[in-house]
Write a structure and sequence with these properties.
319 residues; alpha/beta; seven-stranded mixed beta sheet; 8 helices; 34% helix; disordered N terminus; binds zinc ion; NDM-1-like; RibonucZ/Hydroxyglut_hydro; Metallo-B-lactamas; signal; MBL fold metallo-hydrolase
Amino acid sequence: MRRASTLARVVCSAGAMLLTSAAFSAEPPHSADISKRNLTPQDFPRWQRIAPDVYAYEGLHSPDKQGVIVNTVSLIVATGDGVVVVDGQGDVPQTRLMIENIRKLTPEPIKYVVIASDHTDHVGGNSAFKEAYPNVVFIGSPASQKRLAKDPNPPTMLVSEQRSLRLGAIQIEILNLGRAHTGGDLVAWLPESNVLFLGEVFLRDVFPAMRSAYPTEWLATLRKAATMNASYYIPGHGFIDEAPIMRRELDEARLALASVIDEAERLHAAGHKCESAANCPALEHANWGEYHDWALRSSQAPIAVWRVYQELEGKLPES
Ligand SMILES: [Zn+2]
């Protein structure tokens, strides 16, 4: 019963989403926390059409220790000759639900699943794709293949730099713009609609999450994404408003990352210690300014400081 009512809500909210976004277009809250938009888990999943045959689908990330919940975004492209999904959801039930919703949209099978982020919150449900479509092909970077070697569904089609997929009327460019949040980061660009799905390269209004990040390379990757002048930038977490807002928010994410790196560098230069995320006295001296209130700050700030220290000290893993 619960599942049936959730599905009904998704179908209803598909049309209503753009209105919801418009209501926030003046000054959207600077937080990916779903409660800051008066949403509850029952409002998910939801999706919106962002170009002809292209949809951004929002499932839910599990709550952090403070109970803050953000969304997890998947891109769905119905090409006319099969569906391409870029980034799945974090568990099998949510991914099954996404597949059920895709089936309401189109009878086409899911042919490809692109692993833009190899983190569990984006690949944890991937066996549901295989269960529904045994011939589905998983695409990912060599780094993601390595990291998912023990996963039941590692990528088998690899993208080191760039790969074009043309299905039906739609071309999809899978690109490596540089290392960012996972180290195996890929993005998907749709040249016809000029939509750029950045996955976890773009965390909108989420405190920079750096568990496996390459901090200064991530900055360079975000700069590169901005120079592509996409008409619509889609994040891996965070809300999706109208295109001009998303362009501005991409800059905001880059400024936030630069600011967090600067602050961690300042702490390092001042001699404050950070041995690990769990043992990081430097944090007591940190000033995050306007980013203090960004979603997941309390869990992500110690990780960010530690990871920047690792980079400064030449201790980041090669891959
Ligand atoms: Zn994630």
